[in-house]
Specification:
By secondary structure, the protein is of the alpha/beta class. Helices cover 41% and strands 11% of the residues. The protein has an eight-stranded parallel sheet with strand order 3-10-9-8-7-6-5-4. The N terminus is likely disordered. The structure holds ligand FNR.
Amino acid sequence: MLGSSNGAAGWNLAGFIKVADFGRGAAEALTRPAFDYYASGAHDEITLRENRAAFERLALRYRVLRDVSRRDMATSVLGESIAMPLMIAPTAFHKLACDEGEIATARAAAAAGTVMVLSTLSNTAMEDVAKAARAMWFQLYVYKDRGATRGLVARAEAAGARAIVLTVDAPLLGTRERDVKNRFGLPPGLRVENLLPAGMADVPPAMGSGLAAYFSELIDPALSFADVEWLASLTKLPVVVKGVVRGDDAARAVASGARAVVVSNHGGRQLDTSPATIDVLAEVIDAVAGRAEVLIDGGVRRGTDVLKAVALGARAVLVGRPILWGLATAGEAGARRVLELLRAELDLAMALCGTPTLADLTPDLVRC
Ligand code: FNR
C-alpha cells in the first residue's frame, strides 16, 4: 500500500461505532502526509471546524406521538433513485487510502444503494470506476487545455456517468498548510489516471504543495458563468454546479443551465473563514426557488446532520472525509460500514423526530 503503513486486514470493525472512530483508524493507518492531505483545511482551518460546529449548534425540535413504526428514506437525485439522501462526495486520490482505491469506493456506494461522485483527480480511470459503480457522477475540473477538458466530458458520457459535477470553488487551490509543510505530492506509482492520455497525470512533490502547483499550472482560473453554459451545451448529461455558498451565485448557476447546485465550501479546504454550509443552505434554497435540486456537503458526520440538512431543504447530502476514513481503515468494508452507520443513525433520528418519511422533514424541526 502506497499511502498507508498498515493493512486493513488486522482491523476488527466491531469497535467502530461512529464515523469519528474511522477518523482515528485512518490516523493510525495512513502515513502522515496522506492523513494530513485528507484531513486538512485551508489556513487556520476555521471553516473546517465551523462546518461541524454549525451542525452541532442546531437543536432538533422533535415531534412526538407520530406513528414511526415504518420509516422510509429512499429518494432520488436528478431522477436517480437512491436508498438514502446521502451520496459520496468527489475526493481525490483514493489509492492513498487503500490499494483498490476508487473501485472500493464504487462498490461501497453500490452496496449502500447510492451515487458515487468520482473526482477528476482519481487514481483509477473513470471507465473502470463506472463499471464497479451502481451510479456514478463525474466531477469535472476545467483545465486550461479545453480540448483535454472536452475529452474528459466525452469519456464520462461514454463510460455511463449520469451527471457532470462542475467544481467552481477552486480557481486556484486553497493553501492547506499541512500539505505545504509536507511538500505533498503523489508517491511514486500513483497518478491522475484520467489525465494520462492528455499527459497531465503526474503530481510530484514540490516546494509549497505539489497539488497547488498542479492547479496553478493546469486548471483554468478564468472560469465564469459562461462556462456553465458552455458545459451544458457540450453534454447531454445534467450539469451540477458544486461549491456555492450564496443565493445569488446559485440562482445564476441555475440560469446558466445547472440542474442542481451543491452548497459546499470544499470541506473547508479553499477559502478559510467562508461560512459553514448548513448556515447558508436556507439562503440558497430561497434563491433557487425550486428551479433546481439543492445538495449540500461539509461536516456531515452524523445521521442527525443529514436530517437537519434535508429538513432545511436539501435534496441530499454528500460526505467526503468519512469515506476516506473508512477506506483507510478497512478498504471497501470500512467505507461500507461508514455508509451503514450513517444510514442507521438517520433512521433512528427520523424515528426520534417523529418524522417517518423525508416529506415530514420540514424547517420547523431545526428553526426556533
Ligand atoms: C475534496 N473535495 C474535492 N472536491 C472536488 O470537487 N474535487 C476533488 O477532487 C476534491 N478532492 C478532495 C479531496 C479531499 C481529501 C477532501 C477532504 C475533499 C471536496 C469534497 O468534494 C467535499 O466538498 C468535502 O469533502 C465535503 O466535506 P467533508 O464531508 O469532507 O467534511
